[in-house]
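For the sake of transparency, this paper describes our internal protein records without simplification. An entry from our holdings is shown next, in its original layout:
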Amino acid sequence: MKLPFAESWKIKMVEPIHISTRQEREQWLAEAHYNVFQLKAEQVYIDLITDSGTGAMSDRQWAALMTGDESYAGADSFFRLKDVITRLTGFEYVIPTHQGRAAENVLFSYLVHEGDIIPGNSHFDTTKGHIEGRKAIALDCTIDEARDTQLEIPFKGNVSPEKLEKAMQEYADRVPFIIVTITNNTAGGQPVSLQNLREVRAIADRYGKPVLFDSARFAENAYFIKTRESGYADRSIKEITREMFGLADGMTMSAKKDGLVNMGGFIATRREDWYEGAKGYCVQFEGYLTYGGMNGRDMDALAVGLDENTEFDNLYTRIHQVAYLAQKLDEYGIPYQRPAGGHAIFVDAPKVLTHVPQEEFPAQTLTMELYLEAGIRGCEIGYLLADRDPVTRENRFNGLDLLRLAIPRRVYTDNHINVIAAALKNVYDRRESITHGVRIVWEAPLMRHFTVKLERCNS
């Protein structure tokens, strides 16, 4: 008899969570202006708003906290972290920051200038915000297949070589670098193949341009290369990771994802000019070069987390849970971005709420309905997150409109997953009665979805 799946870890500590009533949730959501980011954590039963910094650290990581060196300059913790990063990526120069968007802020302060064009695959909100906030353009060159949520192909996060080539032909003199997000979060947590990374590198080399990886979920990307790309089944995650980063000039990373820590990030590069150009901004924005925005103890925990999460068993356990949720949604006929990604399920909101017009934000409406149904907090990755066009100031409705259910690492059991699936099914079963969404009352000029205020549309 084949043994059933079981997690590659056992539970050592638990935290109680509160189950609320529908009446309470109606009041709380209204007080939050229908923006789930504004809810208090105690008002949430199962929290899937992000997998960023919400995972559970291991016993080895908690032990590593005790070895932290809090020296202002030259901390031992930094050099232990640097050694792990260099071993995994091959990058010699490392700058720690307090999280991924800080890494972008430091590096882009040096690299991105007004009028620049940054081609890539579905830039995430903070990446796009740091580009557009500098009056540059984030040019999406993702493959067209990513827009068809029901299409099953193994590497839906890929950069389109044709689109990238066209962009370079037209704008090469305005392109400071090419960015590739691994995995591609905005397109549904979809991986990028090594073959595609080689194609991007070849185009970049022809035009003399460097390549930067947005690497928050690089380990999950390596897992999909191992399990989906021909020729890599017998390669270790660490070997694949090293090969991936061999095709880049540098990386930014939110360590709160695949680093398995609650706060932290870094820049790593093989280019001395990038390091020299960025380090002054690190001192200005984050802190001294050997701690950036991180405590020594957190750097030690991150070093262990990076080592742990580049092992197959840990990744298999994590990605199996995402696949299990996908399996439940398949049973209920609920459409999502297929195939399931590594960190989340992305429900295709316009295919669920067919009566809610795009101007009333279907994915945000579905996010609200799931919270009201069972206290489950997801996140809109769609028309609200897309912000307005920086020139026309019109809402951007040309992308996907998804409800992301991001599963924290090593936090929830499959029983929680069953509750999530059942609650979403209940919303799906009454979808015909949901005919109106929300309108914007107030919004910030950039990255509005974090703080936007909404009201219900009743007619």
User: Anything to note?
Assistant: The chain has two domains: 22-51+316-456, 59-308.
